[in-house]
Known about the structure:
This is DUF72 domain-containing protein. The protein is α/β, with parallel strands linked by helices. Helix content is 36%, strand content 17%.
Amino acid sequence: MGNILVGTCSWTDPALVAGGWYPSSAKDAEGRLRHYAGRFGLVEVDATYYGLPSRRNSELWAARTPPGFVFDVKAFSLLTGHPTRIGSLPASLRPPGAAGARVRAGALPPDTVEEVWRRFSDALEPLRAAGRLGAVLMQFPPSLRPGPEAEGFVAECLERAGALGWRTAVEFRDPRWYAPEQCAGTASLAGRHGAALVAVDTAGGLPSSVPPVAVATVPELAVVRFHGRSPHWGTGGKEDAYRHRYTEEELAGWVPRIRALAERTEQVHVLFNNCCGDAAVSAAEAMEALLG
């Protein structure tokens, strides 16, 4: 059975920091990361979706964690087709417009987009060199629906990522990618380009609900992300959409799926994105206990 790593989608979430999970001795960024890495072997860096990371941060993250600790990193929003705040781009690359306005990659000069890819990759290099970079999560927006044009865009993104030497995981937010008539094609698309197709847990029965499809598309890696089961998934703000405290029964239903993925891959990453207080770390601890 492959190695299963469990963790959360942030170690710096303000609600977690204020929630009492960290001891009083972990009073700064270094102390909190060292404490987290002493408890879990995996974390996802979510902040890189909202702004480009820096080499300095990658160097510090590698220095402050033990050998074997893994960082999954979420791709910057511009790289996966999301509308991106102009103010989140480096000053030298910003187009005219208010900092809060949003722009997509297609509206920028190709050289600018290429430079964003280059800077993102350069910032991750210290993690990769230290053997701490797990998967780069390529999460595509809900507006990306299955079809030839969308599949071509996904293929282009994954090919670029592969050329940069990244191990990738791909997650779709439109549930049609996981529908019975489409799922095999979605899994094939991910597998052809060396990406793990992310298995997702969300609330069921909503228009935006993503089915809990768990298939191994590459032999190296499988990824499972738990977003919580809020009835506001896909419609509410972050606090509402991700607010959920998993029960042991809800988690236990995933144990056979995770173990099946572990039998087919070298490593499984299980990540909890149900923010608000210590809900994510509590769920991760409970899942570790259930997996034994």
